[in-house]
Amino acid sequence: MKLKHEIQIFFAALTFFTRLPSPLSSDQYGEDLLNRAARYFPLVGWIVGGICALTLWLSGLVLPASISILLSIIAGIITTGAFHEDGFADVCDGFGGGWTKDRILDIMKDSRVGAYGVIGIIFMLLGKYLSLSELPFRTLPFVIIAGHSISRFASSHCIYTHEYVGNQGTSKAKPLCSNSSSIDTLLGAIWGIIPLFFLGSYWFLLAILPVMIAKWWMARYFTKWIDGYTGDCLGAIQQVTEVIFYISVLIINHNLT
Asked: If DSSP states are collapsed to H, E and C, what string results for 209-240?
């Protein structure tokens, strides 16, 4: 029975964060499942990263590396429905254009994307593309999977360490952001870190440090302005720490070669 419940929790996370087919429909998972789903965010990252890596490898058989990297990024966006990118853009607009808590939250709830959001997304995607382009192509599938998993752990860790704020009635993240236990965090850390062991050197584990520093700083910044985080803030943490991870791997790889 417990195994069945864990499987349901995993599929709740998969259904909520991707457009992949799942035994659960969007109206079948409740607050209890989504509150526990944080433990499987990094595992969902394995799947999303795996799709990106497979796209990279297959396209790399017939296309230049630059095009293959671009297609792998597009594959990730399609798989998640730009879920995290949308959150990042909303955060750029909200914190870029708002100067009070209420104003920031109001802007982030607006479905329209403003100048800050557009500029932020452009630089975010450019950061992913350029950092991956500078790494050896043969290692990219493993780096991409690790990036998706560790960045989702950083995002889920914020649920454990900080308070959720916002309009509970309108936030799309309301059911999953209310609480996260120590067990959820521990399991999330395990799922998040495992892919790093396939990067070829234990030195790449050092990339965890800048990722978690960035998470700490962003969570602190959000708390300063809005007294906590929203679902959009979690998406922003995922996007930023993914890029920071790639850059960190690039720096470590440069010093190893």
From this structure: HHHHHHHHHHHHHHHHHHCCECHHHHHHHHHH
Give Dmax over CA atoms of the chain in angstroms: 52
For the entire predicted model, the pTM comes to 0.93
Q: What share of the chain is helix, strand, coil (3-state, %, to 5)?
A: 80, 0, 20
* Residue 208, H or E segment: helix 208-226
CA distance 2 to 12: 15
Interval 107-141: pLDDT, tens: 999 889 999 999 999 999 999 999 999 999 999 99
State pLDDT tens for residues 61-110: 999 999 999 999 999 999 999 999 999 999 999 999 999 999 999 999 98
Amino acid at 152: R
The average pLDDT across 218-241 equals 96
Tokens 């350029």 correspond to 130
Taken as a whole, the chain contains a residue count of 257
Give the separation between CA 73 and CA 95, rounded to whole angstroms: 26
Instruction: Report how far apart the first and last C-alpha atoms of the chain are (Å, whole number).
Output: 50
Measured at the CA of 204, the angle between CA 199 and CA 208, to 5 degrees, comes to: 120
